[in-house]
Amino acid sequence: MTDLSRFSINQITTPSWNMPQAIDGYARHGVHGIAVWRNFMEEYGVAATRQHLRSADMWVASLCTSEWLNVTSPEEMAGAIDTNRRLLDNAAEIGAPCLMMVVGGVQPNDKDIAGQRARVREALHVLVRHARQVGVKLGLEPLHPMYAGDRSVLNTLKMANDLCDELGEGAAVVPDVYHCWWDPDFEAQLRRAGPDRIATFHYCDWLVPTRNLRDRGMVGDGVVDIPRIRSWLDAIGYDGCFELEIFSELDWWKRDPDETVRIAIERCAPYVQPRKK
Ligand code: ZN
N or C: lower Cβ tally within 10 Å for the chain? Predict the structure, then answer.
């Protein structure tokens, strides 16, 4: 019997569904976990989203994503921090335990990646206080280094763990197989994080060839050793949630979302079961 109690679908996997369609669509297939995207939530309304989630008996894995912190002027940084405070409030309102922090890449006119990482670190120290107040974690998701230019200067699980060490309560890591599978330290850094520091865990697959920056594969279609990675999570005692998150301009985003969800359940089921104790 398939137990989907740990399984959620990240809404970006089915972007042709709006907020209510995604909630009803996942629930219709027996998936009661969802990672909510901010644009869909804002379009539908935060209160309406909360209501609808509750009436469909859904739990929320995360709210995606933060406002980027790749700004150089203090005024712009203050604005980005304010927006992230509001998003933390929104996350609390819809019952999301974490806000996915995508911190932004380098500024093209700046080119100072170390300086950018320092600014991000400072901003996170400010934000973590608000995160604690509202009971939502900053979900630090390292992105594959190919995104360092335009999306995130936080690029390895070690960097995310280092930040969590200094931020303390209110910060967590979000490992994603797409971003971390290549990293020789992946297993060791999962062990270092331990089960309590992992806010949620992202599944998809790495396609060969990868055709563009939004070309992630369905679980099983690429070169990531998902069974092995799941065994590492079991070994550290991780009992938290899993999210399927697929950006796929050329394939999955073009399909009927009902088909995507049906295949997602088939493919993910073996890797989202309760841990054998
Ligand atoms: Zn992810």
Answer: N
